[in-house]
Protein backbone atom coordinates (compact mmCIF):
# COMPACT_ATOMS: atom_id res chain seq x y z
CA UNK A 1 0.00 0.00 0.00
CA UNK A 2 2.77 2.45 0.88
CA UNK A 3 4.29 3.90 -2.28
CA UNK A 4 7.51 5.82 -1.78
CA UNK A 5 6.61 8.29 -4.55
CA UNK A 6 3.22 9.21 -3.07
CA UNK A 7 2.88 11.96 -0.44
CA UNK A 8 -0.01 12.94 1.80
CA UNK A 9 -0.37 16.74 1.94
CA UNK A 10 -2.44 17.86 4.95
CA UNK A 11 -3.61 21.44 4.57
CA UNK A 12 -4.11 23.84 7.51
CA UNK A 13 -5.77 21.59 10.12
CA UNK A 14 -5.43 24.40 12.67
CA UNK A 15 -7.54 25.58 15.59
CA UNK A 16 -8.67 28.79 13.89
CA UNK A 17 -10.26 26.77 11.05
CA UNK A 18 -12.10 24.46 13.45
CA UNK A 19 -15.33 25.18 15.39
CA UNK A 20 -14.62 27.87 18.00
CA UNK A 21 -11.78 29.33 15.92
CA UNK A 22 -11.48 32.77 14.35
CA UNK A 23 -12.27 31.54 10.82
CA UNK A 24 -14.17 28.40 11.71
CA UNK A 25 -15.02 25.98 8.91
CA UNK A 26 -18.18 23.97 9.66
CA UNK A 27 -17.19 20.44 10.64
CA UNK A 28 -13.49 21.25 10.35
CA UNK A 29 -12.67 19.06 13.35
CA UNK A 30 -14.62 16.05 12.00
CA UNK A 31 -11.88 15.18 9.52
CA UNK A 32 -9.10 14.76 12.11
CA UNK A 33 -9.59 11.05 12.97
CA UNK A 34 -9.78 10.07 9.28
CA UNK A 35 -6.62 12.03 8.47
CA UNK A 36 -4.76 10.39 11.37
CA UNK A 37 -5.82 6.97 10.09
CA UNK A 38 -4.57 7.78 6.58
CA UNK A 39 -1.06 8.93 7.50
CA UNK A 40 0.33 5.41 7.89
CA UNK A 41 -0.42 4.63 4.24
CA UNK A 42 2.09 7.20 2.95
CA UNK A 43 5.87 7.17 2.91
CA UNK A 44 5.88 10.96 2.93
CA UNK A 45 3.60 13.12 5.08
CA UNK A 46 3.65 16.93 4.80
CA UNK A 47 1.64 19.45 6.84
CA UNK A 48 0.94 23.05 5.96
CA UNK A 49 0.36 25.75 8.56
CA UNK A 50 -1.23 29.13 7.82
CA UNK A 51 1.14 31.52 9.63
CA UNK A 52 0.35 35.24 9.49
CA UNK A 53 2.05 38.15 11.24
CA UNK A 54 -0.27 40.46 13.22
CA UNK A 55 -1.75 43.09 10.90
CA UNK A 56 -1.44 40.86 7.81
CA UNK A 57 -2.79 42.42 4.60
CA UNK A 58 -5.36 39.61 4.23
CA UNK A 59 -7.05 40.72 7.45
CA UNK A 60 -10.08 43.03 7.12
CA UNK A 61 -8.85 44.76 10.29
CA UNK A 62 -5.82 46.04 8.33
CA UNK A 63 -8.06 47.98 5.87
CA UNK A 64 -10.12 50.86 7.19
CA UNK A 65 -13.78 50.62 6.29
CA UNK A 66 -13.55 46.94 5.29
CA UNK A 67 -15.36 44.04 6.91
CA UNK A 68 -14.43 40.35 6.86
CA UNK A 69 -15.43 38.54 3.65
CA UNK A 70 -15.30 41.75 1.58
CA UNK A 71 -12.48 42.04 -0.96
CA UNK A 72 -9.73 44.51 -1.79
CA UNK A 73 -7.57 45.00 -4.85
CA UNK A 74 -4.10 43.84 -3.86
CA UNK A 75 -1.14 44.49 -6.20
CA UNK A 76 -1.39 40.79 -7.19
CA UNK A 77 -5.17 40.72 -7.76
CA UNK A 78 -8.45 40.58 -5.86
CA UNK A 79 -7.99 39.37 -2.31
CA UNK A 80 -10.74 38.23 0.06
CA UNK A 81 -10.44 39.88 3.47
CA UNK A 82 -10.62 37.54 6.45
CA UNK A 83 -11.10 37.88 10.18
CA UNK A 84 -7.71 37.96 11.97
CA UNK A 85 -6.63 34.31 12.07
CA UNK A 86 -3.62 32.00 12.43
CA UNK A 87 -1.39 34.66 13.96
CA UNK A 88 2.15 33.37 14.36
CA UNK A 89 2.62 31.61 17.69
CA UNK A 90 -1.02 31.93 18.76
CA UNK A 91 -3.25 29.10 19.96
CA UNK A 92 -5.38 29.64 16.86
CA UNK A 93 -2.40 28.95 14.61
CA UNK A 94 -1.58 25.70 16.43
CA UNK A 95 -2.59 22.42 14.84
CA UNK A 96 -5.84 20.86 16.08
CA UNK A 97 -4.88 19.06 19.32
CA UNK A 98 -6.23 15.77 17.98
CA UNK A 99 -4.04 15.78 14.86
CA UNK A 100 -1.23 13.25 15.05
CA UNK A 101 1.91 15.30 14.41
CA UNK A 102 4.46 12.53 14.85
CA UNK A 103 4.26 11.16 11.27
CA UNK A 104 4.77 14.63 9.71
CA UNK A 105 8.16 14.82 8.01
CA UNK A 106 7.89 18.38 6.75
CA UNK A 107 5.84 21.35 7.95
CA UNK A 108 5.44 24.19 5.45
CA UNK A 109 4.43 27.56 6.85
CA UNK A 110 2.82 30.06 4.51
CA UNK A 111 1.26 33.51 4.57
CA UNK A 112 4.14 35.03 6.58
CA UNK A 113 4.88 37.85 4.09
CA UNK A 114 2.88 40.85 5.39
CA UNK A 115 1.75 42.05 1.96
CA UNK A 116 0.83 38.76 0.24
CA UNK A 117 -1.60 36.02 1.21
CA UNK A 118 -0.69 32.42 0.46
CA UNK A 119 -3.52 29.95 -0.01
CA UNK A 120 -1.44 27.45 -1.96
CA UNK A 121 1.20 25.24 -0.37
CA UNK A 122 3.36 25.91 -3.46
CA UNK A 123 3.06 29.61 -4.34
CA UNK A 124 1.88 32.78 -2.64
CA UNK A 125 -1.20 34.49 -4.08
CA UNK A 126 0.96 36.35 -6.62
CA UNK A 127 1.28 32.86 -8.21
CA UNK A 128 5.05 33.50 -8.41
CA UNK A 129 6.72 33.49 -5.00
CA UNK A 130 7.53 29.86 -4.14
CA UNK A 131 7.20 28.30 -0.69
CA UNK A 132 9.90 25.73 -1.46
CA UNK A 133 7.55 22.74 -1.25
CA UNK A 134 7.95 21.85 -4.92
CA UNK A 135 11.72 21.46 -4.47
CA UNK A 136 11.25 19.38 -1.31
CA UNK A 137 8.88 16.97 -3.05
CA UNK A 138 11.02 16.66 -6.19
CA UNK A 139 14.17 15.95 -4.20
CA UNK A 140 12.22 13.20 -2.46
CA UNK A 141 11.12 11.76 -5.84
CA UNK A 142 7.45 12.33 -5.10
CA UNK A 143 5.24 12.06 -8.19
CA UNK A 144 1.77 11.70 -6.64
CA UNK A 145 -0.04 13.75 -4.03
CA UNK A 146 -3.18 13.11 -2.02
CA UNK A 147 -4.62 16.25 -0.39
CA UNK A 148 -6.85 16.55 2.66
CA UNK A 149 -7.64 19.39 5.07
CA UNK A 150 -9.06 22.92 5.26
CA UNK A 151 -10.52 24.66 3.51
CA UNK A 152 -11.60 22.74 0.40
CA UNK A 153 -12.42 25.86 -1.61
CA UNK A 154 -9.37 27.95 -0.66
CA UNK A 155 -6.12 26.44 0.53
CA UNK A 156 -6.87 22.85 -0.54
CA UNK A 157 -8.08 23.86 -4.02
CA UNK A 158 -5.25 26.35 -4.66
CA UNK A 159 -2.70 23.76 -3.56
CA UNK A 160 -4.24 20.97 -5.65
CA UNK A 161 -4.43 23.13 -8.78
CA UNK A 162 -0.84 24.35 -8.42
CA UNK A 163 0.35 20.77 -7.83
CA UNK A 164 -1.43 19.56 -10.97
CA UNK A 165 0.04 22.47 -13.00
CA UNK A 166 3.50 21.50 -11.72
CA UNK A 167 2.98 17.99 -13.12
CA UNK A 168 2.17 15.99 -9.99
CA UNK A 169 -0.65 13.43 -10.17
CA UNK A 170 -3.13 14.86 -7.68
CA UNK A 171 -6.19 13.61 -5.91
CA UNK A 172 -8.26 15.35 -3.23
CA UNK A 173 -10.12 13.26 -0.66
CA UNK A 174 -13.26 15.39 -0.43
CA UNK A 175 -14.51 13.36 2.54
CA UNK A 176 -11.46 14.51 4.52
CA UNK A 177 -11.87 18.20 3.61
CA UNK A 178 -14.39 20.84 4.67
CA UNK A 179 -15.26 24.10 2.86
CA UNK A 180 -15.84 27.76 3.79
CA UNK A 181 -18.27 28.08 0.82
CA UNK A 182 -18.38 31.84 0.34
CA UNK A 183 -20.72 32.96 -2.49
CA UNK A 184 -20.47 29.70 -4.41
CA UNK A 185 -16.74 29.29 -3.87
CA UNK A 186 -17.00 25.54 -3.31
CA UNK A 187 -18.71 24.88 -6.66
CA UNK A 188 -16.26 27.18 -8.45
CA UNK A 189 -13.21 25.58 -6.79
CA UNK A 190 -14.52 22.09 -7.56
CA UNK A 191 -14.93 22.95 -11.26
CA UNK A 192 -11.45 24.53 -11.37
CA UNK A 193 -9.89 21.47 -9.75
CA UNK A 194 -11.60 19.16 -12.27
CA UNK A 195 -10.43 21.40 -15.17
CA UNK A 196 -6.87 21.22 -13.85
CA UNK A 197 -7.00 17.41 -13.88
CA UNK A 198 -7.32 16.91 -10.13
CA UNK A 199 -9.12 13.67 -9.19
CA UNK A 200 -11.81 14.17 -6.54
CA UNK A 201 -12.43 11.11 -4.45
CA UNK A 202 -13.93 9.94 -1.22
CA UNK A 203 -17.23 11.78 -1.53
C1 LIG B 1 -7.44 29.68 4.41
C2 LIG B 1 -8.55 31.67 4.19
C3 LIG B 1 -7.49 32.34 4.74
C4 LIG B 1 -7.45 28.20 4.21
C5 LIG B 1 -6.36 30.34 4.95
O1 LIG B 1 -6.70 27.49 4.90
O2 LIG B 1 -8.24 27.72 3.35
N1 LIG B 1 -8.51 30.35 4.01
N2 LIG B 1 -6.40 31.67 5.12
ZN1 LIG C 1 -4.90 32.73 6.17
Describe this structure in words.
This protein is an alpha/beta fold and 203 residues long. The protein has one domain (6-53, 85-201): Isochorismatase-like (Rossmann fold, 3-Layer(aba) Sandwich). It has helices spanning 32-39, 133-139, 152-165, 185-195, and strands at 3-11, 42-50, 71-74, 77-80, 106-110, 144-150, 169-178, 199-201. The strands form two sheets. Strands 5-2-1-6-7-8 form a six-stranded parallel beta sheet, with helices on both faces. The mean pLDDT is 97.
| Beta-strand content bin | 25-35%
Determine the number of helices (DSSP H or I, runs of at least 4 residues).
Answer: 4
Shape: globular
Q: Please tell me how large the radius of gyration is.
A: 16 Å
**What profile does the largest beta sheet have?**
6 strands, parallel
Strand line-up of the largest beta sheet: 5-2-1-6-7-8
Number of strands: 8
Low-confidence stretches are none
CATH homologous superfamily descriptor: Isochorismatase-like
- The appropriate CATH architecture is 3-Layer(aba) Sandwich
Q: Roughly what percent helix?
A: 10-25%
H-E string: EHEEEEHEHEHE
CATH structural class: Alpha Beta
Distance between the termini: 21 Å
Distinct small-molecule ligands in the complex: pyrazine-2-carboxylic acid, zinc ion
How many domain regions? 1
Q: What is the SS-derived class? A: alpha/beta
CATH fold description: Rossmann fold
Average pLDDT score = 97
